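We treat protein structure as text, and this decision shapes the records that our systems exchange. The tokens are whole numbers drawn from a learned vocabulary of local backbone shapes. Below, we set out a record of this kind in full and without editing:
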Amino acid sequence: MKAPKILVVDDEENVRTMLKTFFTRKGYRVETAASGDEALKAIKGDVFDVALVDIMMPGMDGITLTKKIKELSEELPIIIMTAHPDRDYVLSALREGVFDFKQKPIALEELYYAVREAIHKVRLIRENKSLIEELRDMTANLYKLLAEKSGDLIKEKNRLEAMIEGMNEAVIFCDENDAILNMNKYALNLFKIKREDSIGKNLYLHHKKETYPKIKHVLDTFKSHKDKNYMEWDAHIADRWFNLRFSAVRDDSNKYQGTIANFIDITERKLFQMQFAKTEKLASIGGLTAGITHEILNPLNIISGNVQMKLMEKDIREDDRKIYENIQRQVERIVNIVDGLLRFSKQREPKMEDVDVNALIEKTLSLLDYQLKLQNIIIEKEFDKSIPSIVADSDQLEQVLMIILINARDALNKRELKGGTDEHYKKKIIITTRGNMPDYVEISFTDTGMGIPLDIISKIFDPFFTTKPEREGTGLGLSIAHGIIEGHGGKIDVRSEVEKGTKFTILLPCVYRTKT
């Protein structure tokens, strides 16, 4: 078997050379292209197993190229490489169905494992596609075999059934009346049904109400249009995402005989897309930051890649190794600085760990303790000591807690400056945690500040929306908090009454049993 073939598309020659050298050493065949047009020409003339595409190229950019590649080779996985942080480019790439998304400077070993996974999946898809074509032909041939010897028919039937049972996807056969003829083991497990209970049942019965009309439309189309033989779409079934593929079976006279339905699990890809889609609520700092970081990270990618390859050499001198390791550390330091510039425009991937919610709140309060005491703000804590731990990014959650506490502090000070309060008024923030909920841990912050008017409360999570004076607020804080909480699978809610106060409630999924 030939080694897998990679197509590298990047307008920078140094990047193309670096990646070709790296993957050639790993045993792959590599072809490079300096532009979208060169890439399309290569794909038309050869078969590739994965394409590595730079998103920012002159002429035809990576998004446009991805669309055109999918038209030529739908199953070819595409890994996007970019130093561009703009969320619109990320979301555009995801909508086109890219396999993965790598930020420059690229960690070569991470890219290597992503390429391996992509090649594994595309080969499975191609093998399955070939099997489906063979299955269609064999199914059609079964009708011809009825006139032949019974022994040959049984042999062919057994071979067909063995192939169906061995496929790592759901396969369902139905006749011209939409009744199920057979289901493989994967399909039976998916729909939690016994084989004897499925035979003869209508195909529609195994789907949710919202999927039913679509399947009926597909089968009716196959019956009424002889030129229609294939349809596919994505659907959510039994807590997983599947790519549904329907292929019509016809005899020699093109008469409709039934349908083969294939359900391929694409949950991993969908979750990846949904994760990035959540960044749509976060604001972008703008074109200037994007341009600057693009120009910084592109050369860093080349430097880092060459240093990584140098460090992989076995005969490198120890003094040289120390120099290269120092260069790599400085590259990583620059990347961290750039990451700081992007913090408001693109949330980094969470670093999940076991988090004690009460302890995290105490830590955050300690950072504001001096300010709060100086401004005579009372903190009341009503903590549930039996609250379960959660799995989360503690740094990101600390950022959320800080944003809410600072907003509460400002609201309290604003009400005090406005006046109109009596001698009994106290600037107060009540922090409550609750863990006796079935699926969530609850954190709430209740202040006695100015409150939020009803006509603007629906806008407070919008990027750049702020009621603070110019230079005092960017309008990004609550937008970022909203994005972080949703990125953790949680919810954030606000209730408020003018000149009475505001309550923010955060719900985060709990994963461990309550402490004892």
In short: The first helix runs from residue 13 to 25. Residues 276-288, 512-516 have pLDDT under 50 and may be disordered. Residues 71 and 352 are 38 Å apart (CA to CA).
